[in-house]
Amino acid sequence: MRRRRFKHVCLAALLTLAGLGGAGTVPAVASGGGAPAGSSPSAADAAPASTALLDAMRREFGLTEEQAVARLDAERDATALEPRARRTAGTAYAGSWFDAVGGRLTVAVTSRSSQATRAALRAEGAGVRVVEHSARVLDAAKSRIDRLPAPSAVGGWHVDPAANTVVVTVVRDKTSDNDVQRFLAQARAAGPVTVETVAAAPRTFAAGTVGGDPYYTGNVRCSIGFSVHGGFVTAGHCGQAGAGVRGWDGSYIGNFQGSSFPDNDYAWVNVGSGWWTVPVVLGWGTVSDQLVRGSAEAPVGASVCRSGSTTHWHCGTVLAKNETVNYSQGAVHQMTKTSVCAEGGDSGGSFISGDQAQGVTSGGWGNCSGGGETWFQPVNEILNRYGLTLHTS
């Protein structure tokens, strides 16, 4: 127990010091509207996956080592291809996702797309699927649903590009509830909608004070997300702007400099008093500690792993993007849905795909014994919102 804690202590400090970036360093402004400069996965291309990461993928996905290597390579290619494919498809673009079976990015386009456009997409290495609704139509329908008051039994809603519809999730034993039925009728009037049921409503993953975990604010324990120059990013529901933050040992780290929840679920904390930042995500002994080399956004269908102070390291796949999650405290927008489990205290922790930062843990349903789903707030949105620069290796 002492040995595990010693490793935890050292790495928690590594994730939060102001040494390499300098205490009180003024953060550089990130580029607007997309991944900040330097977030390209090109640096990862030369870095082979660690044996521990490949072992984790073998356990989580039932792959051989060769299959795990091939999947990581294919996901890296799909991540780089996605923005180009969107530009190639133009107004006919209807979404895209990583096809784990085919090992490539699939791009949906409407029937109005030209044969030349489809041929260009295939030439770039993408699979092509012709669908009815464009991404613009589906996004507009979701935006109309965002303006509706949702009952607590409605878990959330997102655009599913593979299904070419807006998926609304409802707690399984509440589907006949009058308020739910009224909401669904209004949602269907907004555009193409499919209803799916889930076992439970989403909740945030903060927890009461428990000894030996990365950071505390008040009586709440949460997890560090990613180091930025001058501090770290985490979940907004973990603390309000100005709130003090203590480390695993009770020592002062810094304060919440910005925080938003609900509507968003992001925050950032400055660091000082002997703490510094380095580009590391804890592997908790399940895998080696992971270096962060950028923040290129992985596509739907890609593998993703989460590190948190309660359940440590778990992996799964990206299920959906831009989902509106209906927590009891209020709706949170532009979230990414995953098949990864989480529990109380994991809030704010890191979601990473390969060596590319993806986001900070927000909430979900279920647990790591029986399974569940978890959402994260995309990291690039946080960086752009606060003008922060991700600390990368």
From TrEMBL:
Top enzyme category: hydrolase
Entry GO MF terms: hydrolase activity
Pfam families in the cross-refs: Pro_Al_protease
Peptidase S1A alpha-lytic prodomain domain location: 133-188
Keywords on record: Disulfide bond, Hydrolase, Protease, Serine protease, Signal, Zymogen
Entry annotated with the keyword Transferase: no
Entry superkingdom: Bacteria
Signal peptide residue numbers: 1-23
EC number from the UniProt entry: 3.4.21.-
Protein family membership: Belongs to the peptidase S1 family.
Protein name: Streptogrisin C
Source organism phylogeny: Bacteria, Bacillati, Actinomycetota, Actinomycetes, Kitasatosporales
